[in-house]
Design the sequence.
């Protein structure tokens, strides 16, 4: 290295030293496991470890995609996410707009405070609450049903209602968060637009249609696209803990994440769960890159990279 | 015109009130069932208003139960320690990246950012943490995996620094003879209070509510945090037969009673709810910053 570069390095040494703990952590927590992806291509032998186990080529993947599980978990993960993204965004935007139209500022603040509460509750506690509603013997819903003369339902053994239950729980937990987010976007709209509209005699719905919605379109598209980029990932707690890992419900609640967990921890099927994990990471990566590319074409400064 | 507006206001408030009920009633169910007498719970079921009030569940867990107090202690220790470590790591990483003059910062930023796009998945991580680092059933297992630093927070902080800390300030400090660490501690940190508060809240919440690390790596009752304890009590029949469960049931011939389970669940969210009113504005800030490009 010539003298100039040497001096530059020395000058910045303290700053580089600050980066060291973070880099070490990233290497351990994120990058070594990335290398560990090779376990999906091996026949994992616990006593020989990852490096000592034999190569298996794509056998794990072939086994995985031969099962009907591969289709089920993909379908579940993607479909639930589509509902969460589109219905969730529509609901959050609607509530945010509604909130902004309310005159009483104190009420607005109170609403915002209260609907954010579910966000703070851990999913484990949520599973207790859901149990309180759906428990076969003592649940609130079954008691209400039997008081009305109907039969009790064995909620945790009957998959019929669970797609709705999952969506309801997810909405409960996230609507406050998303609403706050879009509300902030709404607050950023220049009020002079509204003033001009009022002068022109625009009514409330016209205002919303022609000013509010177009103004937040960039925010909404980015949020949607980023969410689509993550469509292969799911909230493990929502799909494992809330249905209480109940066997009969697995077909409608098994996502890629719960499949990987079950393969790793319950059935000790390392090969297939590792393959599922790689499947998720690779497709997920492609989707994020694609989503970002689309965002970049629309609105360059709003893309992630 | 004014009349129509009044109607709209009433309608809007009603809709919001319904939404608030949707959000609050489940929590009410939780609280109510934790103070309902055990027999009443079995006979009348869960309800929004207790049919017979009984505080013995709380009396039991706060006074008699070592397991719960211990669980609380673990949760609190992990949250405090974890938040401090995370904020330290994040600040140390975000500050150099915010310096326009740092050579190679784009590369380093990419190394950070790439972790948001691609990850190895649970299987390699699990194998690594248990086989290479042997963290199973250690305190580190609750602290280190996944939660100690994440790219999103670093990017948030870096953005805060680049928009709020003018280079002139740093140059002036250098002229005064300050070293880089000196600048960090004496100038950057005081100015970073808002972002530090926001991140402390988000990170703290993440640690307090975490149950995955405990699920993956812990099966000894001395290391159960509150959330992990709750998880095991609801789901794990093996746990229910174990000694830890015995310590939890008032009537040792039975599984932990429902009232006690609900009371523990309430304890799982109580600290968060208590702290929330004071920190709400930071939470809102965190959500809205996160929405804008990092």
Sequence:
């Amino acid at each position: 290295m010539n003298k100039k570069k040497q001096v530059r390095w020395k000058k910045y040494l303290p700053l580089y030293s600050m980066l060291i703990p973070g880099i070490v952590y990233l290497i351990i927590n994120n990058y070594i496991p990335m290398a560990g992806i090779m376990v999906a291509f091996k026949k994992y032998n616990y006593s020989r470890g990852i490096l000592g186990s034999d190569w298996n080529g794509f056998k794990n993947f072939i086994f995985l995609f031969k099962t009907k599980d591969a289709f089920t978990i993909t379908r579940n993960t993607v479909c639930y996410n589509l509902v969460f993204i589109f219905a969730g965004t529509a609901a959050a935007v609607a509530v945010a707009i509604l909130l902004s139209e309310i005159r009483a500022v104190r009420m607005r603040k109170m609403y915002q405070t209260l609907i954010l509460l579910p966000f703070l509750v851990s999913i484990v506690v949520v599973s207790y609450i859901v149990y309180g509603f759906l428990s076969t013997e003592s649940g609130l819903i079954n008691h209400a049903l039997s008081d009305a003369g109907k039969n009790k339902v064995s909620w945790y053994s009957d998959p019929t209602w669970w797609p709705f239950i999952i969506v309801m729980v997810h909405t409960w937990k996230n609507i406050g968060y998303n609403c706050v987010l879009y509300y902030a976007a709404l607050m950023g709209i220049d009020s002079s637009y509204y003033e001009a509209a009022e002068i022109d005699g625009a009514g409330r719905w016209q205002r919303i249609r022609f000013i509010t919605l177009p103004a937040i379109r960039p925010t909404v598209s980015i949020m949607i696209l980023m969410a689509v980029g993550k469509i292969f990932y799911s909230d493990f707690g929502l799909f494992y803990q809330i249905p209480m890992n109940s066997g009969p419900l697995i077909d409608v609640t098994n996502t890629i994440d719960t499949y990987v967990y079950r393969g790793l921890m319950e059935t000790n099927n390392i090969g297939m769960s590792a393959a599922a994990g790689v499947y998720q990471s690779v497709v997920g990566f492609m989707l994020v890159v694609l989503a970002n590319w689309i965002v970049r074409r629309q609105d360059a400064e709003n893309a992630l990279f | 015109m004014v009349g129509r507006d009044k109607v709209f206001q009433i309608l809007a408030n009603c809709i919001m009130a319904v939404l608030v009920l949707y959000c609050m009633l489940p929590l009410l169910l939780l609280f109510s069932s934790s103070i309902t007498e055990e027999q009443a719970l079995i006979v009348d079921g869960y309800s929004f208003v207790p049919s017979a009030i009984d505080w013995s569940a709380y009396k039991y867990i706060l006074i008699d139960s070592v397991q719960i107090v211990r669980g609380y202690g673990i949760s609190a220790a992990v949250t405090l320690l974890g938040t401090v470590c995370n904020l330290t790591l994040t600040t140390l990483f975000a500050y150099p990246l915010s310096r326009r003059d740092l050579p190679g910062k784009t590369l380093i930023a990419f190394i950070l950012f790439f972790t948001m796009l691609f990850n190895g998945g649970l299987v390699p991580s699990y194998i690594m943490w248990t086989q290479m680092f042997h963290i199973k059933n250690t305190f580190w297992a609750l602290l280190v995996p996944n939660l100690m630093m994440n790219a999103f927070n670093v990017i948030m902080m870096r953005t805060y620094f680049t928009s709020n800390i003018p280079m002139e300030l740093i140059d002036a400090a250098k002229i005064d003879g300050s070293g880089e660490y000196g600048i960090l501690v004496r100038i950057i940190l005081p100015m970073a209070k808002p972002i530090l508060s926001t991140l402390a809240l988000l990170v703290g919440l993440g640690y307090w509510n975490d149950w995955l690390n405990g699920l993956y790596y812990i099966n000894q009752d001395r290391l159960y945090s509150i959330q992990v304890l709750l998880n095991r009590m609801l789901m794990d029949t093996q746990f229910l037969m174990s000694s830890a469960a015995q310590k939890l049931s008032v009537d040792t011939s039975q599984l932990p009673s429902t009232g006690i389970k609900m009371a523990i669940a309430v304890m799982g969210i109580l600290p968060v709810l208590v702290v929330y009113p004071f920190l709400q504005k930071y939470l809102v800030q965190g959500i809205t910053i996160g929405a804008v490009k990092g």
